[in-house]
Amino acid sequence: MQGGFTNPAETGVEMKSITLIKGDGIGPEITDSVIKIINAAGVAIDWDIQTAGADVIETEGTPLPKRVIESVKKNKVALKSPVTTPIGKGFRSVNVQLRKELDLYANLRPCYNLPNVKTKYDKVDIVVVRENTEDLYAGIERRVDENTAESIKIITRSASERIAKFAFDYAVNNNRKEVCVVTKANICKLSDGLFLDCARKIAAEYSNIKFREILVDNCCMQLVQNPNQFDVLLLPNLYGDIVSDLCAGLVGGLGIAQGANIGKDYAVFEPVHGSAPDIAGQDKANPTAMLMSAIEMLNYIGEKDAASRIKLALFETLNAGVKTADLNGNASCSEFTQAIIKRLAVLVK
Ligand code: NAI
Description:
Elements: E1 17-21, H1 27-40, E2 46-50, H2 54-60, H3 66-75, E3 77-80, H4 94-101, E4 106-112, E5 125-131, E6 141-145, E7 148-151, H5 157-173, E8 178-183, H6 191-203, E9 210-215, H7 216-225, E10 232-235, H8 237-251, E11 260-262, E12 267-269, H9 288-300, H10 304-319, H11 333-347
Parallel strand pairs: 1-2, 1-3, 3-12, 5-10, 8-9, 8-10
Antiparallel strand pairs: 4-5, 4-11, 6-7, 11-12
Helix pairs in contact: 1-9, 1-11, 5-6, 7-8, 9-10, 10-11
The chain binds 1,4-dihydronicotinamide adenine dinucleotide (NAI).
1,4-dihydronicotinamide adenine dinucleotide binds at residues 26, 82-85, 95, 254-255, 270, 273-279, 285-286, 289, 326.
């Protein structure tokens, strides 16, 4: 199944109260678009709207107030748009903190061709499974002296085994054939070596899924030359972040790249892209990545019928040639949204 996955705990079916983190930059624009589309599909959701990021620091003293975490803990599911992180200075990423605090250990990023989105390759269908809680994102960094800085890369057996198990379970549940583990274990012999060992150990428990190993540099080259050879990719946090943007580029760019952060108890759905400050506030953003993330959220909470109708309306809109500027179209974010809503009106019984 493309992009779909099963709620591991099957706890979400009854839930309709969902945390909505609006973010900043293009966040509010794409969020408004998606909420309008979900409303038009007739899904009744009680959105628990939460703010985070630089804008709340002044009033609440932190970019990620406790109320945001508490809200996700209460509702179990969140839809999140991007939040800006200052580069090279300032506060720790809200995204990284949220994933850590809620133990959202699996970052799932399906990448496949969308209708009428022309790219170099057809039939790309890759799922990136990224470990989401450790590696260089542990944030253990220090300035040794004026000319030297160091960052510590944390890889543990428990986190590596559980993400490997997630990747293989995903493969089994979604009719996938192969899991390919991506590391730099020739250089980071201990840290990536441990990640690789854990993947090998878990692979041995899944005789029906093929297992493959590749070094991350070769993987990038192979991806741009022949992406169709890959199925499910399993990566530590940093390589997963980078390689998933590469995969997004293969199928049309960040404007269409969906994502989900899944843990044992909670799930936060969000696009792969950031807050795109270069186009914020101009009604130019493509809401597709956020919409595709929301579609997976609807599937997760059991709203499968609405999820398929929205997906169909999105695909028909793209097929009709209504596209935003990032896909070489000339529709604004709001025109694109309205076009999807118009299609939905025909599909809603
Ligand atoms: P970005 O993903 O925001 O933008 C990269 C390029 O893609 C830009 O040219 C942008 O205009 C374009 N783009 C992104 N999303 C688009 C969309 N929906 N429609 C059309 N074009 C789109 O990455 P960048 O510029 O490196 O990061 C900006 C900020 O976002 C940083 O503060 C970064 O930390 C943050 N960020 C937040 C994430 C999150 O909240 N999960 C994820 C990645 C970055």
